[in-house]
Design goal:
The chain is built from 2 helices and 12 strands, in the order E-E-E-E-E-E-E-E-E-E-H-E-H-E. By secondary structure, the protein is mainly β. It is globular.
């Protein structure tokens, strides 16, 4: 798996330990997953399934090596944010950042929570509740064609920092769990640690 961030870890309806991340982090089922900060831990799990439309993968954790733990500061799940809600994200490369939600379209939403490469799959929270999975930077549909301003806006960490940067795209975590459950996939009925 590429350098990405876990959304959440816990157990699914079968009691199996699982974790979620972005689907674009690995394109192969059964691909091994290693901890970037501790590769000596060995393979902590494998990619069990993935959905490119909602950009999520379920990692089947190896119970002899990894076990789910609660995320500090996250107390359960909540619905996807609406326009104007302030959300925060945690990621491997940019850490903890917060920003306003600019648009929501069904299960997708865009915010100004700064995100960069390696943050994909990271948790998006609102008021301490997990509301989404970070997919990456992307212009919302209401902004017009992707090329209209997307090529002008810098990443959020730019040598000449601007208050305007490429928005971060997230997917509703409830919608992701509902999708895995409806398909009977690993991760169905997910309960956070």
């Amino acid at each position: 798996m590429a350098g990405c961030t876990l959304t959440a870890a816990g157990t699914d309806a079968t009691g199996a330990p699982v974790a979620f991340t972005a689907a674009h982090c690995s394109d192969t089922i059964d691909a091994p997953v290693l901890l970037r900060d501790n590769e000596n831990a060995g393979v902590i799990g494998t990619i069990a399934t993935r959905n490119e439309i909602l950009d999520y993968s379920v990692i089947r954790l190896n119970p002899n090596v990894a076990f789910p733990v609660a995320q500090p500061g996250v107390a359960g799940r909540g619905p996807a944010p609406e326009f104007g809600d302030v959300v925060c994200k945690d990621g491997l490369s940019t850490g903890h950042t917060c920003g306003i939600t600019w648009q929501r379209e069904g299960v997708r939403f865009w915010s100004q929570a700064c995100a960069g490469y390696g943050d994909s799959g990271g948790p998006i929270t609102k008021d301490g509740r997990l509301v989404g999975l970070l997919s990456g930077g992307h212009m919302p549909p209401a902004a017009g064609p992707a090329g209209s301003v997307g090529s002008v806006l810098p990443s959020c960490f730019h040598p000449v920092q601007s208050p305007f940067f490429l928005p971060a795209l997230g997917y509703s975590f409830d919608a992701i769990v509902d999708d895995a459950t409806a398909r009977g996939w690993p991760g169905r009925g997910f309960q956070m640690a």
